[in-house]
Amino acid sequence: MSQDEIAVMDGGKCIMQLRGVRPFFSDKFDITKHKRYKELSDYDKKNAFDMEQYVKHLHHLKVTEKTKVDEAFECGEISPDTTE
């Protein structure tokens, strides 16, 4: 399929690409018909995840001796590859 054919493809269709299977056409799913659609930001902008607010919340959490930690991860900064 050429780029031109993809550009004029029916808006109700999509190309599914799954591991181990050749790409195929499929009908798009109408998310408004999903039982939990009302929880999406598409339904109500108040449902949008606010990363900045979440990070601020994390900084206000208090860790005590009773705090249970399942796993700890080290956070670091990734710098661009300069070997080129």
Question: Can you characterise this structure?
Answer:
This protein is α+β, with helices and mostly antiparallel strands and 84 residues long. It has a domain at 3-60. The chain is built from two helices and two strands; from the N terminus they run αββα. The protein has a two-stranded antiparallel ribbon with strand order 1-2.
Topology:
Blueprint: H1 3-7, E1 13-16, E2 24-27, H2 51-60
Antiparallel strand pairs: 1-2
Structure summary:
This protein has 84 residues and is of the alpha+beta class.
Average pLDDT level: 85
Largest sheet report: 2 strands, antiparallel
Cα-atom Rg, whole angstroms? 22 Å
Structural class, judged by helices and strands?
alpha+beta
Helix count, DSSP H or I runs of 4 or more residues: 2
Helix content: 10-25%
- Poorly predicted tracts of residues: none
Number of strands: 2
Helix-strand string: HEEH
Which strand order spans the largest sheet, edge to edge or round the barrel?
1-2
**What is the 3D shape?**
extended
Termini separation: 35 Å
Strand content: 5-15%
